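Researcher: Structure for this, please.
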Amino acid sequence: MDDYFSPWPVVCAIDFGTTYSGYAYSMRPDYERNPLNIECNPSWSNEEMMTPKTPTCILFDKSENFHSFGYDAEKKYRKLAEKAQEKLEIDEEDDSNDSDDSDDSGNEKVEDKIEEDNVTEWLYFRRFKMKLYQDDMKAKQKLKKLKLSAENGKKLPALKVFSEAIKYLKDHFEALLLKTTIRDDCKESSLNSDTSQEQRHTSVSTRKQETHSERSVSNIVDSNHSSWSDDILWVLTVPAIWSDEAKQFMRDAAIQAGIRDDHLVLALEPESVALLCKQLALTKKGVDIKVQMFEPGSKFMVIDCGGGTVDVTAYRVENNQALRELHCASGDAVGGTNVDMLFINLLNDIFRKAVVERFQNKSPSDWHELLRSFEVKKRGIGLKHPNEKEKELITFSSLGTLIDAFTHLNGHSKNAISKRIQEMDLKKKIKCNGPKMRIDETYLIETVFAGPIKDIVKHLKNLFAEKDVKDIDIILLVGGFSECPLLQDAIKREFPDKTIVNPRDGSIAVMKGAVLFGHSAEIVAQKRIEQGHQLHEVQEVSECVVRRSRAYYGVATDVPFVDGEHLPVCRYTNEEGLSMCSDIFDCLIKKNQVMEIGQSVFEKTFKASSTLANVEIYRSDREVQYCHEDGCRNIGNINALYSDDIGDRRLFKIQLHFGFTEKIAIAMDMKTQKTWKAKLDCIL
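Model: Predicted structure, token format:
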């Protein structure tokens, strides 16, 4: 294999989550010594503790310029909201007071500062990733024009919001890598020059690879930092159940963020978990079960319970340690944020929706503090208590403004909220005392948690009824929502014969596994295909994941018309005078069909009469005969741009390859044998 296809010196995986995001990375020499030498950014901080991820929220100023991301965005937005709230309280105390705007000490005018940093003019977005997951097929085809609504109702193009968020994480890693490299270079320069090569390298082959990789990383530090883009492979994680359109949207956002197209790959989230768990020594009550899980022939299921979606995949370990999907990836939008939505619905029922919306608009700081408090509390709800007979009350503070708003809209009656709770027959389940509200844990579980958990369990029951996965007895439970004790207990209770494994640091398993994916042989194989090479070397595909198609894919074609078999409306006469039928769905690959790595499922030859050839790709969730049938839609076009020099109208060939995390289109000049990656445009 030539050097162009050698492994990347640096791999950085960005886990762009619904609720939290972060990145992990490793250098090739570290990977070769120990694949689990994976680093996460250590410095995310919310002023209370260090976390491996930061909230997926982003803030733009009133000029719609990027301001901050994560905890920094939360902090700035909270300060803006607090200032606005203070101003509102001052105005309410004395509406007629329009005299001095400055205090006795000559501090900056409050009014001017509020005007400068008016929270209503800033755009704050949170948990926007799920906007890309739509059940409506027509909505999927509008991603290019999709706009996201900020907390204040103002909108920005979704591509701008996503790309700025990815750019922040990209820039953050590059700054960290630069700092680390400078430090390491200083340490390296202090080493004795006579240090023996035998002490520094263990073998000739290792020395060659390590020296190449370390030199590449070191060379990143130059006056222009010109080699950054040459040394880093970026891996962006996406749910396995996402559409082709949503996956391409994420790629386009990453490219707009400054990541080169040929230095970017997408990793499927549950696959990343499986790759990590192959390396981890998983234990359950002190008993090592790693050998059981990853022996050839063994089967296991990965349930990735994130904030937005729940991704479920099942695998069998092959003799060469490759993972083979037993069933196409499945799941739905039943992640942890559904619990949050039901909690908000509960507040709407208690205080009435209009009051809650007023609370959100007038006191955004208190509102976000309430949501953050619930995010922390929901991870502990359902834990066993020392005295199980004693009812547990979950306390929510900072609700004084909400309770006051409800009281104000109900005739200023001090007992308004108590009467409301009594009307709802919730006197024994909800108690309000001053700015605090206490909710009976059992009632909270039934109202907020039970529905989403029931949906997840139901999906698993349906999946275990499939013949390919019914005999699986090991389940890997990962993702932020997997830390919920209620979900863990529900799955264990419903499937008592299954071994449930919660890997250590399950909430960061995806981004660590994505780093391993970036170092894998599959990436080398993908780059060879993109350059028009054949996968003739067995080792290139031996460790790859063998996937299954999530739908029927095909192209529109014309066939000879047959009376009684084809629709008359599709009948036409071609140039040769033959009766033809148009719009036939020519199936390239079936739903749940195994897709071998680099498998070419489509090939078509064109006689170039212009600089562009176009092939329409269709997708259907069921078997269809025509491309215009319900459930079948055009998901994108393969566009092959030729050079302007086509004087002899020579032939060109287009190939479509399945089996990777993305579909790859390749074009070839049949005369010169020159190949290039064609554009598969899935965002119409």
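Researcher: Any notable elements?
Model: The mean pLDDT is 78. Residues 30 and 71 are 30 Å apart (CA to CA).
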